[in-house]
Every structure is written in C-alpha cells, then in structure tokens.
Design the sequence.
C-alpha cells in the first residue's frame, strides 16, 4: 500500500523561492497524514500563465531542483510537480518525480502543447514516455492536455505503469475532462491516476479545480471541489491485480488487428 496526497491550490506566481517554501509546508502536512507521495500542479514552481519571458527567466536545470530534493529528504516523502525546465536555449513544460531519499527518479516533458498559450512559452516539446519504479510500483508522468489523448496513457500502461501522476492547469470550460476523462483513462488502462490541478483565477484563466484520484476500475477515490484542498487515497497493488485478472484487457488486445495507429 502506498498513500498519495494531492495538493490543489493557487500556488505562487513568479516566486520560485516562495514556491519551495510552500512545497515544504504542504509536504509536512501530507506526511503528518501518513502520505508517502505528494503530487502538486503543472508549472507549480513558477505558476502556469506567466508568459514566455517569465518562463525563460525562471527555467531550471536539474540542479535547480535541489531544494525540492532537500524537502523530500527532510520529510521522507516522494514529490511530483511541474516546473519550467531549461533545455538548451528553450523551455519545456516539465514534471519530475523525486523519491523520499531525494533522488530524481523521472523527468517528463509535456508532449502535447495546448493552444497559443503553451506554444508561446514552450519551444521544447517532449517525445518520450518514461516509466520509473518506486516502492515496488511503476510510475509514469503526463501533464494536463496529454491525458486528453488516449495514446499517451496507453503507451505508459503498455510500458508497465501502475500509476499515472498528472500535474495539470485545467481551466474553464473543460470541466468534462476532470469529471469524465480521468475515470475513463484509469479504467481503460487499469491504472491509478492522480490529477493535481490549480485553483482560483490567474490573469484571465479560471481553473476548474476538481483534482482527483481514480482507481484502476474507474472508481473516483477522491475528488476536490473548486478551492484549495488536499486529497488522500491509497494505491493498493492487490486490488489492482484483482482488477487486471477479472478483466484481462491487455491479454485480450489484438494489436495486429488494429494496424498502425499513427494516422
């Protein structure tokens, strides 16, 4: 069993030192409730709707994540969150999974950019769907718009992922994604999903909130409202194994019948 905490909130805008301090406070709260892993929203360290100049000015390399690694070690809790990543001269919309010992386990770069807002800020786009093992479970990361396509989640599931961690900045009018797409993705791939959104308003964007934790049978284990909130749910490998045995989607698949899915 592994207990996940999910933080939904407004965060801080253009204040990375303040965001690390805020992260430390949320990590302490999550650990006090027995959580093993804390997930926070998309572009958590900088804020999401900040524009290309601010994104580039605040972009971090792996070395810049050292304060988060220290927080993980200090509170003995794994962390997953979004941030602007410096990739050469470009910026990627990235997310990282850090183990409770402070080790960087997984870095993921958003593969599907949303509209002009994303395309203006992020000139480096991800091309890979890595999986990392932690505490006997396999984790994958996706970011916001990525989960709205069936293929990324399926790629991770075929790669062995048990849990999908999804930092997001989902705004109005896309409430249907939070309410309907997430349970469907969990069910069709027989994975746990942890979807961590922002809350409140941000320079013309109104976030829907509705962060969630869903089980591998599509059950919504925890669902946030619109405001600041912390959710908790447990990842149960035995339950997941029973779900997969009862409905063997992945052994019953017929890939040769479907043909290429790239078109």
Sequence:
């Amino acid at each position: 069993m592994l207990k996940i905490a999910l933080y939904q909130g407004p965060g801080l805008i253009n204040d990375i030192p303040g965001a690390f301090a805020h992260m430390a406070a949320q990590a302490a709260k999550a650990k006090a409730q027995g959580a093993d892993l804390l997930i926070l929203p998309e572009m958590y360290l900088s804020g999401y709707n900040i524009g290309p100049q601010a994104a580039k000015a605040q972009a971090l390399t792996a070395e810049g994540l050292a304060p988060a690694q220290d927080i993980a070690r200090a509170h003995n809790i794994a962390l997953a969150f979004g941030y602007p990543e410096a990739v050469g001269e470009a910026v990627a919309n990235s997310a990282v999974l850090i183990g409770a010992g402070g080790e960087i386990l997984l870095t993921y770069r958003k593969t599907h950019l949303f509209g002009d807002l994303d395309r203006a800020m992020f000139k480096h786009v991800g091309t890979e769907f890595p999986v990392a093992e932690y505490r006997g479970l396999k984790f994958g990361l996706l970011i916001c718009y990525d989960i709205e396509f069936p293929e990324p989640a399926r790629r991770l599931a075929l790669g062995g992922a048990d849990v999908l961690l999804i930092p997001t900045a989902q705004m109005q009018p896309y409430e249907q994604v939070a309410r309907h797409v997430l349970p469907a993705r969990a069910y069709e791939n027989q994975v746990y999903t942890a979807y961590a959104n922002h809350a409140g308003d941000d320079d013309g964007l109104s976030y829907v909130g509705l962060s969630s934790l869903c089980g591998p049978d599509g059950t919504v284990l925890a669902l946030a409202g619109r405001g600041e909130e912390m959710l908790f749910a447990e990842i149960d490998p035995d339950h997941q194994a029973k779900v997969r045995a009862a409905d063997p989607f992945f052994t019953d698949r017929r890939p040769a019948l479907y043909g290429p899915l790239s078109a």
Summary: The two ends are 40 Å apart (CA to CA). The chain has one domain: 2-248. The mean pLDDT is 96. The CA atoms of residues 148 and 249 lie 20 Å apart.
